[in-house]
Design a protein that fits this description.
protease, Papain-like_cys_pep_sf, 5-stranded mixed beta sheet, Peptidase_C48_C, hydrolase, cysteine-type peptidase activity, alpha/beta
């Protein structure tokens, strides 16, 4: 929901943020062409100013983030658990996703988007793993790290983001979703919160 809301903001025209289900749909392959049309409409509108593509990836209980930097011709592997046994597998996953995104962005739908063709060759992009990302012994807060990184949007910086306030990130994300223009349950939630607040305030 947060991804969809962010994409509706004109200030995010330099960034595509794909939802987690994108990865599942790519590897499921069922009705992929039809689903891609939906992603194009909701998350991947043509823009000559495209700089970053964010793709959150879930592997069992672990989350990591793929960020395609169009200007740098680099795919950033943002991960709090660079497990030697899993790095190659995860980067094969990212290469597959990059290939699918390349097929999409080189389709006729984007022929007049203004992006230079050499910038669309995602399969040639190098993969870089920022070395200053704290490495955790478990995946308990890996999803929170991904939320933190995605919140950088058009100001993405792969280095220097090595501190995490888990509580703050969760609260900021929850408030963002609550206030979202596409949260159809917002009036009900606000009414419930006000009722709860009034009920407890009456005891003071």
């Amino acid at each position: 929901m947060k991804c969809t809301d962010d994409q509706s903001d004109v200030s995010f025209k330099t960034t595509w943020q794909l939802p987690p289900r994108f990865v599942m749909d790519v590897f499921n392959k069922k009705d992929l062409k039809k689903k891609m049309e939906d992603y194009i409409y909701k998350f991947m509108q043509p823009t000559a100013d495209l700089k970053f593509i964010y793709v959150p990836i879930q592997e069992d209980d672990h989350w990591y983030l793929m960020v395609i930097s169009v200007c740098e011709h680099t795919i950033y592997h943002m991960d709090t658990h660079f497990n030697d046994d899993r790095i190659r597998y995860r980067e094969r996953v990212m290469k597959t996703l990059a290939h699918v995104l390349e097929q999409v962005i080189t389709s006729n739908f984007y022929k007049d988007d203004g992006i230079q063709e050499y910038n669309k060759q995602f399969h040639d992009y190098k993969i870089e793993r920022p070395e200053d990302i704290p490495q955790c012994s478990s995946s308990l807060n890996s999803a929170t790290w991904v939320m933190k990184w995605m919140d950088m949007t058009y100001e993405f910086k792969p280095y220097g983001n090595n501190k995490l306030d888990d509580h703050d990130i969760r609260m900021i994300t929850a408030v963002h979703i609550l206030r979202s223009r596409i949260n159809y349950k917002k009036p009900q939630i606000i009414a419930s919160v006000e009722e709860f607040w009034n009920m407890h305030s009456s005891y003071n």
